[in-house]
Amino acid sequence: MTVSPSISAIKDTSAQDRLLKPKRTASVKAWVFALVGMISVTLLVLLFDKVTQLFNSDLSISKRQIQIAKVEKGNLQRDVAVQGRVVAANSPTLFAPSNGTISLRVKAGEKVNQGDLLAVIDSPELKNQYEQQKNQLEELELEYERQKIQIKTALLDNQQRIEMAKVDLELAQKNIQRAELNIEMKVISQVDYETQHAELEKIKLQHKHAIQNAKLQKENYEFELKARQFQMERQKYVVADLERQVNELELTSPITGVIGSLMVDEKDSVSQNSELLTLVDLTAYEIEVSIPETYADDLGVGLATEVTLEGKSYVGELAAISPEVTNGQVSGRVKFVDSVPQGLRQNQRISSRILIESRNDVLKVRRGSFVETGGGSIAFVLEGDVAVKRPIQLGARSINEVEVISGLDVGEEIIVSSIEQFNQSQQIYLSN
């Protein structure tokens, strides 16, 4: 029978035991779990905020699909961009001064100097009319000179009558003096004395009437001569006008330039006032621009204009504005102020910017499609990841900027691209 050893017989191993420190693994795990929990809560809060914003928004759109600009304060240059074409500042058109047959002396594109002969019109009718009126003037001049001689003759006859009447009067006065002596001496009868006295009175009347008649005839002759002179002067004007028309049958160049175009061919029959040819002055160019009708009331002659050609800017000014509106556009002319660009060509397309007004220290924002699509009365203002619709009021507008009168503050950001697809929404969510 086997006997088990007693407990006392088992050796003590306590001397071999060693104290073990508790591991830190459990503590680290606790901290990690706590941190993860906090992050998770934060993410959940943020996610909840995002989800809340998303659900409160009427629409979600990517930020890559829109353009954003910040509201600033500064100077605003109100202007309008226009397109135009180069035209000659001086491009006269010559018209036919009379009916006739034309003979050309130049060709299209040919250079000419001022005063050069361009064309001649043969008008036999006008030339015959000129010769007839010229002959009529010569006849009037001869008649005028003949009438002057006749008047001198008539005045001389009247003067002779006056002098003869004066002689008769002096003789009658002497006779009456003798008759008075004779009547005192009773040499002649009372009847003879009275007869001589009556003869004296008769001669006095003849002398008086001769003077009056000469005066009236002189006035009449002067009136007739003046009327004849007026008739002659009027005929001189007729002849001078016809002479001018005959001289104008030779058409000369009013400028130095080139022949632009010919409207007629050699030996064509032309009617009065019909177009014959155009000339182009190559020393002076202007820009013919088309301006939107909406800016017509703001425009005025003399407004500064910036002309851009091949990357360079040139100073100009608005020289003329048409009073008519055609297809929603107003035509205007821009002339160069300082230097004219070299190498300009007729009908060359050029961009210009008309400076209408300058405003200092105003609230402004970059101009975009939101102005047109929002009617200039609403804007979507960024508030974090959402854009909230807000009523605004816009003022002056330029090509690149627009004035903000009310509704926005400095530093706020708004959507400046088109808002047509969400302008009925009150709030939109902006996703990344």
Automatic annotation (TrEMBL):
Belongs to the membrane fusion protein (MFP) (TC 8.A.1) family. Residues 102-278 form the Multidrug resistance protein MdtA-like barrel-sandwich hybrid domain. It holds the Pfam family BSH_RND. Residues 123-184 form a coiled coil. Gene3D superfamilies: 2.40.30.170, 2.40.420.20, 2.40.50.100, Helix hairpin bin (1.10.287.470). The chain crosses the membrane at residues 28-48. The keyword Oxidoreductase does not apply. It comes from Aliikangiella coralliicola. GO terms for cellular component: cell envelope. It is found in: Cell envelope. This is HlyD family efflux transporter periplasmic adaptor subunit. Keywords: Coiled coil, Membrane, Transmembrane, Transmembrane helix.
